[in-house]
Amino acid sequence: MRWKEFYTNREVGYKQLYADDANTGVDPEYVFYQRRNRMYELQLKNAMELNRKRKRLGGH
Questions:
Q1: ∠ CA 29-35-41 to the nearest 5 degrees?
Q2: Residue 54: partners with Cβ closer than 8 Å, 6 or more residues away
Q3: Which of 8, 12, 41, 51 has its CA 20 to 30 A from that of 60?
Q4: Is 59 helix (H, G, I), strand (E, B) or coil?
Q5: 7 Cβ contact list (under 8 Å, min separation 6)
Q6: What whole-number distance in Å separates Cα of residue 60 and Cα of residue 57?
Q7: Backbone angles phi, psi at 4, to 5 degrees
Q8: Can you give the pTM of this predicted structure?
Q9: What pLDDT shows up at residue 46?
């Protein structure tokens, strides 16, 4: 999907959100959220693995 969006805000200054072939086709903010979600998923996975190991060892 190819789209471009430009908007100005006096408080924030000029902000430019665009995604197309020239810019790898992704919105930087979207990438940021994906990265944050990925980190959260990894943390959750690590926590679950730790709990599993603890149960296996019989500790609390």
A1: 140
A2: 60
A3: 41
A4: coil
A5: 15, 17
A6: 9
A7: -135, 140
A8: 0.38
A9: 84
Element (H, E) at 28: helix 28-57
27 by Cβ neighbours in 10 Å (0-12 / 13-18 / 19+) ranks as middle
**Model confidence over 7-45: pLDDT tens digits?**
454 554 444 444 444 455 566 677 777 777 788 888 888
The position carrying tokens 């149960």 is 55
54, 60 in Cβ contact below 8 A?
A: yes
Q: Which 3 state secondary structure label does DSSP give 23? A: helix
Helix (H) or strand (E) holding 9: strand 3-9
Q: Left if phi > 0, otherwise alpha if psi is -120 to 50, otherwise beta: which for 4?
A: beta
Residue with tokens 């990925």: 38
